[in-house]
Amino acid sequence: MLQYLTVPVTQFQQNASIVWCDATGDAAIIDPGGDLGVLLEEVGRLGLNLKALWLTHAHIDHAGGTGELAQKLGLPIIGPEEGDQFWIDGLPQQSQMFGFPPAMSFTPTRWLHDGDTVQIGNEVLNVRHCPGHTPGHVVFHAPQIDRAFVGDVLFAGSIGRTDFPKGNHQQLIDSITQRLWPMGDQTVFIPGHGPESTFGRERRTNPYVGNT
């Protein structure tokens, strides 16, 4: 069984998620944006073996702690898609601009593409490329537990911003309606900020993408 724990980090209260395989105790952290001590404390409390870092996209609040953590523990960085390399290259500047601790740029160990899979222990998650908020944004879908880790594509009652460099509003809407909705109304999604919701609820009530 795949398990997860969502831990809000940084002054942006970004949802970093520790995901792990019950059978093996192997774990990954999705979007280790900062507060690495807090994240590692939770990993230790749960008795997990941290094996990888997975990124939905490369904005500072999601990726700021990634380079340091990968270097410190010798972990592979998996994702996002190549379109976010310019955001990764700009992480040191982003950290200064937004008052974050110094952030390292890096090159992911593995880029991700639409239709790829990632694995932790015995658990496999599907990867969907969902551009719009950033060009290289990806989403991790765990159909075995009806969960999706969607970064900043979709929120409870809202959608991701598209006014950043290389953001695209129509692309974002297409990502939500063509890539997320087919995962099923019952699927609970873990957004990059704020509470969980379901795709079904957002299809019915979200003012930005409702009834789509």
TrEMBL record:
Residues 13-193 form the Metallo-beta-lactamase domain. The keyword Metal-binding applies. Pfam families: Lactamase_B. One of its GO terms (molecular function) is hydrolase activity. Its cofactor is Zn(2+). Keywords: Hydrolase, Metal-binding, Zinc. Gene3D superfamilies: Ribonuclease Z/Hydroxyacylglutathione hydrolase-like. CDD domains: YcbL-like_MBL-fold. Residues 191-212 are annotated as: Disordered. InterPro entries: MBL_Glyoxalase_II, Metallo-B-lactamas, RibonucZ/Hydroxyglut_hydro. The keyword Metal-binding applies. It comes from the Bacteria. Coiled coil: none annotated. This is MBL fold metallo-hydrolase. It comes from Diaphorobacter ruginosibacter.
